[in-house]
What we know:
By secondary structure, this protein is an alpha/beta fold.
Amino acid sequence: xxxxxxxxxxxxxxxxxxxxxxxxxxxxxxxxxxxxxxxxxxxxxxxxxxxxxxxxxxxxxxxxxxxxxxxxxxxxxxxxxxxxxxxxxxxxxxxxxxxxxxxxxxxxxxxxxxxxxxxxxxxxxxxxxxxxxxxxxxxxxxxxxxxxxxxxxxxxxxxxxxxxxxxxxxxxxxxxxxxxxxxxxxxxxxxxxxxxxxxxxxxxxxxxxxxxxxxxxxxxxx
Length: 222
């Protein structure tokens, strides 16, 4: 695989789907299945190690585009796992919201774009809304409402039909890209729903090779 770009009407497209490293939410929730209120959870120590180890596979994937969700655990995994590839090969990184996690628990909520930009200045988030993740429209448009406090006290969950729409937007985005080899850093529930629950849940930093034209898949790592 030489990484050369092809036009989007070719079926010679390989997408590597990669789940982020373990988050602090993942670690805490595994203990008692109670939401620990880790909004936009960061990588745990184990997750940082997993993301650093991802770099061992990154160069061999020979990608010509990297796509990340705007959630902190995905951006940090991208930074740790692909930083050398990005520098050495001047690979583009696109941060998009289509494949952000399904909003159901605290960690699925994002942070204001302006806050994320300060922590990850190497990534361009200028095209993303300030309150970019799913929330009820009245919460999104009322700047006096604190989304985290609202989620804690009143609560909300992204409707499945809203997620279905994002999945289709994600597929369309991938198919419209001219790059032939793409790495996507994302999230377990989104990937699970992308394949209509027919594949096992992704482990942290696990890599799946996917042909979006034929829907053929192959696990690259265990």
